[in-house]
Design a protein that fits this description.
single chain; about 140 residues; alpha/beta; four-stranded mixed beta sheet; 5 helices
Length: about 140
Amino acid sequence: MIDFDNHTDHDIDVGLFEKIREFLAPSKMIELIIVGDIKIKELNKEHRKQDKPTDVLSFPIKDSKTNFIGSVIISADTAQRVADEIGHPLEVELQILFIHGLLHLLGFDHETDNGQMRQKEKEVADRLSIANPLLER
């Protein structure tokens, strides 16, 4: 299940993300929050010491005793800019970013692995027919 909270004016269907959660983490609960660049910049500065907006942040729950594994926060503003640059709908970019964030919740880390996370992103995108995963950029 996804606990979905949209803090933007974009009309976003949580169903876009449920199929990804079902594929990657069928028994897990995730919080997904959609925000704008101002909020994600604040969070990025507070948690990563980077004073700039970013596309997605993940906050895993370490050693959770429940099926709740953490939160994914996505900037719809950044996602919209990238979607416009690439030429695909916002919904596709949001799905790509959710895959990325959910994989972080599941323990993947593209900064320390040998490409396993990027390969898993591509595998999920291919299986769910989502174009332009991060690996292909």
